Automatic annotation (TrEMBL):
Active site feature: 356 (nucleophile), 440
PANTHER family: COBYRIC ACID SYNTHASE, DETHIOBIOTIN SYNTHETASE
Name of protein: Cobyric acid synthase
Annotated organism of origin: Streptomyces clavuligerus
GO BP: cobalamin biosynthetic process
Residue ranges constituting the CobB/CobQ-like glutamine amidotransferase domain according to the UniProt record: 277-446
Amino acid sequence: MTGGGLLVAGTTSDAGKSVVTAGICRWLVRQGLKVAPFKGQNMSLNSYVTRDGAEIGRAQAMQARAARVEPTALMNPVLLKPGGDRTSQVVLLGRPVGEMGARGYFGSPQAPGDSPGPLRGGGREALFGTVMECLEELRATHDAVICEGAGSPAEINLRRTDIVNMGVARAAQLPVLVVGDIDRGGVFASFFGTTALLTAEDQRLVSGYLVNKFRGDVSLLEPGLDMLRGLTGRPTYGVLPYAHGLGIDEEDGLRVSLRGAVRESRPTPPAGEDVLRVAVCAVPLMSNFTDVDALAAEPGVVVRFVDRPEELADADLVVVPGTRGTVGALRWLRERGLARELARRAAAGRPVLGICGGFQLLGEHIEDGIESRAGSVPGLGLLPVRVRFHAGKTLARPVGTALGERVEGYEIHHGVADVLGGEPFLDGCRVGAVWGTHWHGSLESDGFRREFLRRVAADAGRRFVPAPDTSFDALREEQLDRLGDLIEEHTDTDALLRLIEQGAPAGLPFVAPGAPELVEETA
């Protein structure tokens, strides 16, 4: 028997689909239901490795945690990892299967940028069967599957090959809840326009709306919600207030602005006399920037993303994060003068941490015939490491010990590092105050993070003391419970549960003008 389901769509990217999906998952699992998240196709540089070595979007891993289930590749069968403006690596069921240009993915199989492999000759349409098989497998084993859309379902230029929004909803007959970010303005026009740009068949599944990030008195909004129902025949299922400090993994973009501070999960004073300032180099194609969330969760640690050398001057620790374009990031650091500043820091014994791609570019030499195809490239020379890129990708969940503490992490990289010296540090090394590792997520291990920050503070000459009781795992659970609370307290949960269990209501009216039915549809 197929379980219930819902597709959470959005009027735009970053409307709040990921966190709403997580909130619904947490609310449902607290009702005693077995729940799974799902996103047919995800474009993100923030990814995660499951226990069986599959790569999926971090947002789906976060949603799985909200649902209290183990994340699997079924929850995100297609992951696109941009490598530039026009090409992406395609990860299918957790494994990379090739590079593809936008034209090829959207239906032109001979487009420049495509690589041979299972995607040749079909692009996105060839993946639709896999997406639906994964969804049906999850629905067969769960009481409810909460699906997340991508971008907007009203991207009419892409509807023919859609495998994540209305294509999935039509094929699985899922009701659709449209989320709009009122903080951006124009939410009523966005709700109406999104509905009115869909075909009549698609509109039959659009069951209602959810307002996100509302500030103020809800009674002032209610006349507009009544008018929206009059215009579309569809209710608004809830109005979620603007919630500060939700330190939750997202997929589409930085939760911070460039040169902006990472949002703290909770404002707390430092345990010692000083704060610790962390500058993160905002390299191009930055991946898994969520690595620094655990630093920002520490009382007294201030984390900022920067792109200018002068912004490193007062930093106690500089983090060079992961990137999908190691050689391009290396060039960017040199062009902007950040490379010179990193070298000065290393010579002065001031702390630097390189993670994954950031670790690779701190080394002496990079041989890259895979990612950038740049061939032999000199690195920054701050660590005794030589890196060679391989076609195969390392996907692993290592466990080890560093600084006398147990550490867990995950690895996602094509570059293989030959460590030629220095003090061993996880799979990388340390020379003076310069540290490098391929391990993402290592800073989420509380004991290791505290000991690392003690070393950084000592090298930086700061009287900073890590709080003895900060549990990143507990903070995550607290934030996911907050999301569940938002759904429970600010939506019509009875109506939402009926929608998930029974599907879209019959007789939803057509909103003109609609879009013409396409001759070739995926569903």
